[in-house]
Each structure stands twice: as structure tokens, then as C-alpha cells.
């Protein structure tokens, strides 16, 4: 936490997601500074990245009440989280921050709230909307938030707000002015067909997945054919009994 505070406005940090120990280890080896995962996955992530700054997201559907959120936040911190993420309102942020828990809030495009703003779109397209967003930042500051995931905010608006907020800003499609530049790992690695406009695929794991799938199907078909034409199993793949012992066994069951 202190490293992020000291680096604000200067050093750029990198953040991505992880869903298992392999992804966490890959991010650590690649030099990614911060990881984000769902809170039930903390132990798995720590197997791959025991010492990378880890933000744990508290899922709304799994932990809907204030009491459940608080319990899960304390549990998450006790098993290895460095920060708690919530997309809930300032009342939840304040509750957690009062317990000295570093809290990441969510500002800009919040997908579950997008119908209030006309769907999935960039935030801050006019002065009034940008000013409301700025006040949302100030509200979260007052509630005690430590950082904010800033999703799909117009670049120029994010630049101006970044200069006037004490929050550590994590830019997800909101331009380079954030203290943290954040992308989902499956977007970075090119693991699916539809890469969001704000992201970029720096790899092509999808191609490898497709090749693996084709190889899997081919292998299964070859297995089926080998069984049907009686070439599997062959003598090298079988374990045989001594002939004398076999005769004794046949006598015993006759």
C-alpha cells in the first residue's frame, strides 16, 4: 500500500487478473505488479504468486449483506489479500475503510449499473456527466477508499480527474494517466474471439486452444478406430500371468 502511495503520479504500475496458480505464476514471472482475483480463489493464486500485491473482489451475489461482506473481507485479508475490491456504494466502502482495510472502489462504467446510463458505454462524454463522475470520486475519497478501478472513462476526463484525486487510479480503458494500467489477462493473452475496444491482444492463446482441441478430437478418434480394428490394446500394453499360474487358476474356478 505504501509503495502505491509513494508512486502515485510518477511510477506506472501494471495490473491484471488471475483465476488460477498458473496464471498467477505467469504474471509474476512477466513482472506484473498487481493481481486481482475473486476472494474464494486467494489460496490458489498465492500458490503461483505468493508475494505479488493482490486485490480480492467480493462478489455481490455471494456476499450481498453488509455483515457477509465484512466477514469475507476479514477472511480474505487473513489468507493473503492486500486490498479488497467492491463495486458497491460508498456506505460499503466506508464500512470497510473504518476497519483499516484498503478498499478499491469502481467508478466510470460499472457493468451491473449500466442500464441506468443507457448501456455499456464510455463515461464522461459531456461536461455535466464528467462533473458528476468527478463528484463520485470525491464521494469515494470521503468514504475512505484507497483506490479506484476506473473503467472506460474518456481519456481527457480521466487525465483531469487524476490530477485532483487522492485515490490510486487503476485505468481499465481510461487512458494512460492512471497510476495503474489494468487489463484482464484473457484479453492480454488473446484467449477469446471478441477483444473489447479498450483492450489489446498481445498473444494468441485462442489459436493454441483451438489446436489443442483439434488434437484432442483427433486423438479420441484414433483411439476409437484402434479399438474397433482391435489394434488396441496390443501385447506391449498388456500384463500377462505365468502360464502355470493361469492353469491353476482355471482349475480353481472350474
Short description:
The protein has 254 residues and is α/β, with parallel strands linked by helices. It contains 10 helices and 8 strands. An 8-stranded parallel β-barrel has the order 1-2-3-4-5-6-7-8, surrounded by 4 helices.
Structure description:
The chain is 42% helix and 15% strand. With 254 residues, the protein is an alpha/beta fold. Strand 3, helix 4 (66-78) and strand 4 (83-85) form a beta-alpha-beta unit. Helix 2 packs across helix 3 and helix 5 runs parallel beside helix 6. The mean pLDDT is 96.
SSE map:
Elements (H helix, E strand, L loop, with lengths): L1 H6 L5 E5 L3 H10 L3 E5 L3 H7 L4 E5 L8 H13 L4 E3 L4 H8 L5 E6 L18 H17 L3 E5 L3 H8 L5 E5 L7 E3 L2 H4 L16 H24 L14 H10 L2
Parallel strand pairs: 1-2, 1-8, 2-3, 3-4, 4-5, 5-6, 6-7, 7-8
Helix pairs in contact: 2-3, 5-6
Morphology call = elongated
What is the string of helix and strand elements?
A: HEHEHEHEHEHEHEEHHH
Helix content range of the residues, please? 40-55%
Q: Report strand %.
A: 5-15%
Q: What about the largest sheet? A: 8 strands, parallel, barrel
Global structural class: alpha/beta
> What does the average pLDDT come to?
96
Extended strand count: 8
Instruction: Please tally the helical runs, counting DSSP H or I stretches of 4 or more residues.
Output: 10
Whole-angstrom Rg: 26 Å
Low-confidence spans: none
Through-space gap between termini: 77 Å
Amino acid at each position: 500500500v505504501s509503495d502505491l502511495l509513494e508512486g502515485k503520479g510518477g511510477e506506472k504500475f501494471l495490473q491484471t487478473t488471475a483465476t488460477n496458480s498458473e496464471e498467477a505464476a505467469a504474471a509474476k514471472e512477466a513482472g506484473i505488479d498487481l493481481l486481482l482475483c475473486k476472494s474464494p480463489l486467494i489460496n490458489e493464486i498465492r500458490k503461483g504468486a505468493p508475494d505479488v500485491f493482490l486485490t480480492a473482489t467480493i462478489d455481490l451475489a455471494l456476499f450481498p449483506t453488509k455483515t457477509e461482506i465484512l466477514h469475507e473481507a476479514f477472511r480474505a485479508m487473513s489468507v493473503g489479500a492486500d486490498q479488497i475490491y467492491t463495486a458497491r456504494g460508498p456506505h460499503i466502502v466506508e464500512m470497510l475503510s473504518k476497519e483499516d482495510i484498503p478498499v478499491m472502489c469502481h467508478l466510470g462504467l460499472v457493468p451491473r449499473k449500466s442500464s441506468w446510463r443507457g448501456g455499456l458505454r464510455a463515461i464522461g462524454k459531456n461536461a455535466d456527466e464528467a462533473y458528476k463522475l468527478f463528484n463520485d470520486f470525491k464521494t469515494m475519497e470521503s468514504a475512505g477508499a484507497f483506490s479506484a478501478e476506473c473503467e472506460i472513462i474518456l481519456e481527457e476526463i480521466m487525465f483531469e480527474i487524476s490530477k485532483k484525486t487522492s485515490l490510486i487510479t487503476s485505468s481499465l480503458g481510461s487512458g494512460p494517466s492512471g497510476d495503474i494500467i489494468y487489463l484482464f489477462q484473457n484479453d492480454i493473452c488473446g484467449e477469446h474471439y471478441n477483444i473489447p475496444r479498450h483492450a489489446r491482444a498481445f498473444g494468441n492463446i485462442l489459436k493454441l486452444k483451438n489446436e489443442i482441441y483439434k488434437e484432442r478430437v483427433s486423438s479420441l478418434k484414433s483411439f476409437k478406430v484402434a479399438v474397433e480394428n482391435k489394434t488396441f490394446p496390443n501385447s506391449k500394453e498388456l500384463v500377462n500371468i505365468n502360464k502355470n499360474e493361469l492353469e491353476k487358476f482355471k482349475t480353481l474356478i472350474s
